[in-house]
Amino acid sequence: MLSADDIHKLEESRDKILSLRDSGVRYCTVLRLLLNLLGLYTGDTDDGTLMEEALRESLNQEMFRPMPATRASVEALDKFVFDGGVLNGSSSDQHCVICLERMLSGDQVTCLPCSHMFHANCIEQWLRYGHICPLCRFKLPTDS
């Protein structure tokens, strides 16, 4: 049986997925309008081929298909033990934005090239599915 927390997390995930779907629909609608305007401007009476090609291209973009970071790039990241001191000019009250838990002295942390820090396990799991920093969208290398 699911707990109230589990149900709440599932509802949040559902809402995020629906929001992404709605954003995709809006994106396609704007694209369709732009293509129609282009057709009016150029006098091109396309039979929908241009539209289909544009939609296919947009769906193949990486914003719709997250790709994992390469194993070598993840292994090359700076890893260290958090000492609870001042890091990057900020106080020791640092939080991992992936798990939202406070970094405690002795925790294993990993620093991305963009200087953002996360719990080592959290960012390694994150990078198995996507190659982009969850804070600033810095891109790590991928296999493709």
UniProtKB/TrEMBL annotation:
InterPro entries: RING_finger_E3_ligase, Znf_RING, Znf_RING/FYVE/PHD
Cellular component terms per the entry's GO annotation: cytoplasm
Domain of life: Eukaryota
Domain RING-type: 96-137
SMART domains to which the protein is assigned, alphabetical: RING
UniProt keyword terms in alphabetical order: Metal-binding, Zinc, Zinc-finger
Molecular-function annotations in GO: ubiquitin protein ligase activity; zinc ion binding
Pfam families recorded: zf-RING_2
PANTHER family per UniProt: RING_U-BOX SUPERFAMILY PROTEIN (PTHR45931:SF16), SI:CH211-59O9.10 (PTHR45931)
Annotated protein name in UniProt: RING-type domain-containing protein
Lineage: Eukaryota, Viridiplantae, Streptophyta, Embryophyta, Tracheophyta
